[in-house]
Amino acid sequence: MQTPNKITFKSSRKDFTITLNKRVNEYFKVNKISRHANGEMIIKSIVMMTLYFGPYLMIVSGLVSGILLTVAMTMLMGLGLAGIGLSIMHDGNHGAYASRNWINTTIGYSLNLIGANSFNWKIQHNILHHSYTNIYHADEDISAQKVLRLAPSAKWRWFHRYQAIYAWFLYGLMTLFWMFYKDFEQLSRYQKNGLLGRQKSNPTKEWTILLVTKIIYVSYIFVIPLLLTPWSWWQILIGIVIMHFITGFLLAIVFQPAHVIVGSEYPLPDKNRTMEDNWAIHQLRTTTNFANKSRWFSWFIGGLNFQIEHHLFPGICHVHYRKVAGIVKSTALEFGLPYKNVSTFGKALQGHLQLLRQLGMKSYQI
What we know:
Shape: globular
Helix content: 55-70%
Strand content: under 5%
Distance between the termini: 18 Å
Radius of gyration: 21 Å
Structural class: mainly alpha
Largest sheet: 2 strands, parallel
Number of strands: 2
């Protein structure tokens, strides 16, 4: 990974950025509403936490028994786990859930509660992905992969020709890999390359938090069921894999079409490590919305089908994206800038599949 802080964006087209920010600010001011969570968001948080911990308590308390009911509860936990990741922890770790930092930090730690690490996530997602979207060697979402080729600049390997087939299976393994390997590898790497220090933290604190929360997670997801339920260790492991496969698959198919889709751009810096556009316009070129008319879908995935709005205004709670989207779209078109949108989730997945096939060809390079 190249040092991302050496990449700069041009300061041109400030008129677009100033106008857009002014209009969005006016929307909240005129309507006298907060940019942060509202009643809808609080209710959603309760629902998602209940969807995850409710079935868990039913399993460990013995209220459900038998393979079919237990598997059904495990699958519900997978949905709840995805919901917590897509909605609750996501807004918390972006500082969008509340105006008070301690509330956002607490909400953000819900990621640790479900097995991952919020500190690593904020570096990879908030800093590397949001700042340098689709810039190869800077955005880890497209650069850290080896088994998948997610950018034209990535090295082609012979097995990539089959990635449009096997990628979907790997997506299901994403959170298992993340929680039991990637968190440890990332924190070690961030410590070595100085990213940990730049966040004004220290290795002892972050390693302690990581290890303690991993132990807590393994204790309640594996040890307690082993002690309180009739299921054997290998049956519990199968249940954990089922739960995580559902979660990983859902997370991947929501996040991937937003940037790895036909029509998405992969700009590279010039010889002076400067990007062609300013940061806001760069986000418009590298990000795609999808299924914006589906309210239930948007509700479940934390408004991340409004990915353009999320990237331009990550500090705004996702419950406001639908209203903000009209402002962003009209302003972008007014300034002759792209506003990429796919009408349905199915078409977004088709566009992602098509790009996976293209990137799987050795000849597809820039």
